[in-house]
Amino acid sequence: DREQLLDLVRRRKEEWGMDYVFLATEENANVEWFRAAFGDQLLVMDRERYNGWHIYTKEDPNPLYQAGKKHLTALNYLAEMELLAACDGLISSITSGVRYAIFRNGGRYSHLELLDCGRFPDQRRRH
Question: Please, which residues have CB within 8 angstroms of residue 106's CB and are 6 or more apart in sequence?
Fold first, then answer.
C-alpha cells in the first residue's frame, strides 16, 4: 500500500539521518506522489516516464519502449541503478536492477532494507 511505503520511507529517513530521498521509478504518478511527501528533499533523474500502469498494445504502445527509445530507456535504467549504488542507504523491493546496485555498492550502504512484496500478478492472464 502506498501510504505504508511513504510512512516507512519517512521513518527510515529520520532514523537513518538522511537528507534526501532518491526515487528510481518508471511511472510519473510515483514521482508526483513522492514529491508531494518530500518536496525539495526528493531527488529524481530527469527522464521520460509513463503515465499510469496498464497493458500496452500495438495501438497504444508503452512510450519507453517504442522504436528508437529502447536504447535510451535501458541507459536511463542503468544510470538510475548506478545512482542507487552511490546512495548511503537503500529501501527497495527485490529486482534485478537493485541486485546490480547492491553489487556495485560493494557493501558500503550504511542501511539496507529489502522489502518482500511478493509477486505481481500477470495482468495479461484472464481469470
Answer: none
